[in-house]
């Protein structure tokens, strides 16, 4: 079992979460949308696997480098 932490690549707020815990995802699937400077920036899965944990909530401020989602390969 390999766990991969997916980190925010930009500072902003969590606009919309597109996945749920337990959901299967493929590499480059959209996990959530970050709003930053009036732009919507998708946070993509870096691997194929299953979403094990979502560590953010919609509306939450998110700092660059913060772990947002954990995926099990």
Automatic annotation (TrEMBL):
PROSITE patterns: BIOTINYL_LIPOYL. Transmembrane segments: none annotated. Keywords: Biotin. SUPFAM superfamilies: Single hybrid motif. Residues 1-72 form the Lipoyl-binding domain. Gene3D superfamilies: 2.40.50.100. Pfam families: Biotin_lipoyl. NCBIfam families: PRK05889.1. This is Biotin/lipoyl-binding protein.
């Amino acid at each position: 079992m390999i766990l991969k932490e997916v980190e925010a690549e930009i500072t902003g707020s969590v606009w919309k979460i597109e996945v749920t815990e337990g959901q299967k995802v493929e590499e480059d699937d959209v996990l959530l949308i970050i709003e930053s400077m009036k732009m919507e920036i998708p946070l993509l899965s870096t691997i194929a696997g299953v979403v094990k944990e979502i560590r953010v909530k919609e509306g939450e401020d998110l700092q660059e480098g913060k772990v947002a989602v954990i995926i099990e390969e």
